[in-house]
Specification:
about 650 residues; alpha+beta; Immunoglobulin-like; TIM Barrel; 8-stranded parallel β-barrel; 6-stranded antiparallel β-sheet; 14 helices; elongated; disordered C terminus
Length: about 650
């Protein structure tokens, strides 16, 4: 028997980590007198009747009724012979309440019809994986002290095929195109916007109806496995956006599933999201928590995913999120904290790190909720990392200001260091910053065209050297002028122009320096990895800081000039003498810069500055940044030969 009493106990308790192996549609081979067929099981506790309908029985609700499993489990199940892979089906539910009748997709379906069709598809998940080496090394590549440079991607608009009606790439086509691009630019991970099945393409995957099914728009589940497998074989990690915060009200989905508010709250003050017009999960219900927890573990286990970026965590944490007074219900203590959601997140993270210790959960959390990325045993929520939305907002606001006014806003570029180590932060420049009239990243920059590109190179240099892991949305790497449009390909033709190709080359060289220089990543989450040299030079809009690795001479010096005025004879303190190599300069001609620099190196003299016994005398490029490391460090992890950092004037 597929579904045991112990399974039912765990499911009702909310602790069944593999509920997807028991509920849903599962193909069974012939066994003795029993022919081959499919076992179906669905949770619908308030149904008076449940039947499987599909193309195999003419969608007849009288043909194949399911049987309730016990008196209290709420699970209906049954076996139907000769139902094989590829069969379309739904659950026909007659509710106990007012005779409500509906045809529902399977919440645990492994595959769905391609939208706008809404049936589930009987499917198996057999696949021969080839990423054993990646999995064996994942403890190192996914470690918190490893470099994480994340390329965020919307699969349907990364690249399209205009010769074939502007169709998006399939999962298998995307695997090769994406791996080539990401590997060439040196990103360590890819983050895919939600690929779970969603009826409305314009939701970008954030309105999910098929939580266990990769969208059929780009291929089969095995095709998606190929994408993950191929990226792993190219030494690229895979992060999935995951949406446990809300779901759409489409009739075939989870909403009002068995004629009752089963997955969501009945009271709209708890169950309806005013911003997204969607339903909010009832985290106080153990079966709902089990559905979501087993779904998270499903993607990590079945699809070998390396991390889940959990969407809209703030909307889960606060009962009054996006609500006015009187539109929400306080918790039992009178507060606005969603205690059930907090407990769900803690239990989710405990399960993830218990079952898949070399994967991570990453919270998109936009408030000052404490200890989001701290262990539950210390009172935290247990996430591995958290997006630093404050850094993103302050930094973009600063770069949008005319440089002549930046001295009055100097705190916007330095304030993040006051809280940088309170959490394990990811610094995001995500899709959310280039949609809905916000303009592209290059469009946000101040100044004329040359200054905009110089500013954007400076922004990325500041981001890549600032403590925290890095995330950049596709198209940002070459300065796409247009806002992102989900129905169109990225503007790849722009790479024929020097400012765009130079910017992409800069991102490539930043990634290579970041990955090969432990001082820039090994202590991203420790205050011992960062040291201000000068954070007070508001008049000249210059900041200077050190990043530190484990060894005493494992350091990188970063100097940023946020004005279009070159700074001649700029003295900055350094911790020791000797020759310092200019590893990168954002103003190098190879990046379409003006070539102001330091001829590739500078010698530290015994002249105290900024409280340090030695100092360098530098030329600071306009709207530019330079990175120096001690000579012996540069030998062991040299910058790429074609980065041309030595060819400044």
């Amino acid at each position: 028997m597929l579904l045991t009493e112990h399974d039912i106990y765990l499911f009702r308790e909310g602790t069944h980590g593999r509920a997807y192996e028991k509920l849903g549609a599962h193909i069974l081979p012939a066994d003795g007198a029993r022919p081959a067929g499919t076992h179906f099981a669905v949770w619908a506790p308030n149904a008076a009747s449940v039947a499987v309908i599909g193309d195999f029985n003419g969608w007849n609700p009288q043909a194949h009724r399911l049987t309730p499993r016990g008196d209290s489990s709420g699970i209906w199940e049954g076996f139907i012979a000769d139902i094989a892979r590829g069969t379309l089906y739904k659950y026909h539910i007659i509710s106990r309440h007012e005779g409500y009748t509906v045809a529902k997709s399977d919440p645990f379906a492994f595959r769905c019809e391609t939208p706008p069709q809404t049936a589930s598809v009987v499917w198996d998940l057999a696949y021969e994986w080839g990423d054993a080496q990646w999995l064996a090394n994942r403890a190192q590549t996914n470690a918190l002290n490893a470099p994480w440079s994340i390329y965020e991607v919307h699969p349907g608009s990364f690249r399209r095929v205009p010769e074939e009606g502007n169709r998006p790439l399939s999962y298998r086509e995307l695997a090769h195109a994406l791996a080539d691009h990401v590997q060439e630019l040196g990103f360590t991970h890819v983050e895919l916007m939600p690929i779970m099945e969603h009826p409305f393409y314009g939701s970008w995957g954030y309105q999910v109806t098929g939580y266990f099914a990769p969208t059929s728009r780009y291929g089969t589940p095995q095709d998606f496995m190929y994408l993950v497998d191929y990226l792993h074989q190219r030494n690229i990690g895979v992060i999935l956006d995951w949406v446990p915060s809300h779901f759409p009200a489409d009739q075939h989905g989870l909403a009002f599933f068995d004629g009752t508010y089963l997955y969501e709250h009945a009271d709209p003050r708890q169950g309806h999201h005013p911003d997204w017009k969607s339903s909010i999960f009832n985290y106080g219900r153990s079966e709902v928590r089990n559905f979501l927890q087993s779904n998270a573990l499903f993607w990590l286990e079945t699809y070998h995913v390396d991390a889940l970026r959990v969407d809209a965590v703030a909307s889960m944490l606060y009962l009054d999120y996006a609500r006015r007074a009187g539109e929400w219900i306080p918790n039992r203590f009178g507060g606005n904290e969603n205690l059930e959601a907090v407990e769900f997140m803690k239990q989710l993270n405990l399960a993830v790190y218990r079952d898949h210790p070399h994967t991570h959960t990453i919270a998109e959390e936009s408030t000052a909720w404490p200890m989001v990325s701290r262990p539950t045993y210390l009172g935290g929520l247990g996430f591995g990392m958290k997006w630093d939305m404050g850094w993103m907002h302050d930094t973009l606001k600063y770069f949008a200001a005319d440089p002549v006014h930046r001295k009055y806003h100097h705190h916007q570029i330095t304030f993040s260091m006051w809280y940088a180590f309170n959490e394990n932060f990811v610094l995001p420049l995500s899709h959310d910053e280039v949609v809905h009239g916000k303009g592209s990243l290059i469009g946000k920059m101040a100044g004329d065209t040359w200054q905009r590109f110089a500013n954007l190179r400076l922004l990325y240099g500041y981001q890549w050297t600032h403590p925290g892991k890095k995330l950049l949305f596709m198209g940002g790497e070459f300065g796409q002028w247009s806002e992102w449009r989900h129905e169109e390909s990225l503007e790849w033709h722009l790479l024929q122009y020097a400012p765009h190709s130079g910017l992409q080359r800069w991102v490539r060289d930043l990634n290579r320096l970041y990955r090969t220089t432990p001082a820039l990543h090994a202590r991203d989450f420790s205050s011992e990895g960062f040291e201000w040299v000068d954070c007070d030079n508001a008049d000249e809009s210059v900041i200077v800081f050190l990043r530190r690795g484990q060894g005493p001479r494992e350091v990188a010096l970063v100097v940023c000039n946020f004005t279009p005025v070159p700074r001649e004879h700029y003295r900055t303190g350094v911790p020791f003498g000797g020759r310092w190599i200019e590893r990168l300069n954002s103003d190098a001609p190879v990046y379409d810069g003006s070539g102001v620099g330091n001829m590739g190196a500078s010698d530290a003299v015994e002249f105290a500055s900024h409280g340090r016994p030695f100092s360098l005398m530098l030329r600071l490029p306009p709207l530019g940044m330079v990175v120096f490391t001690p000579e012996e460090q540069a030998v062991s992890s040299a910058a790429p030969a074609d980065s041309a950092v030595h060819r400044q004037a």
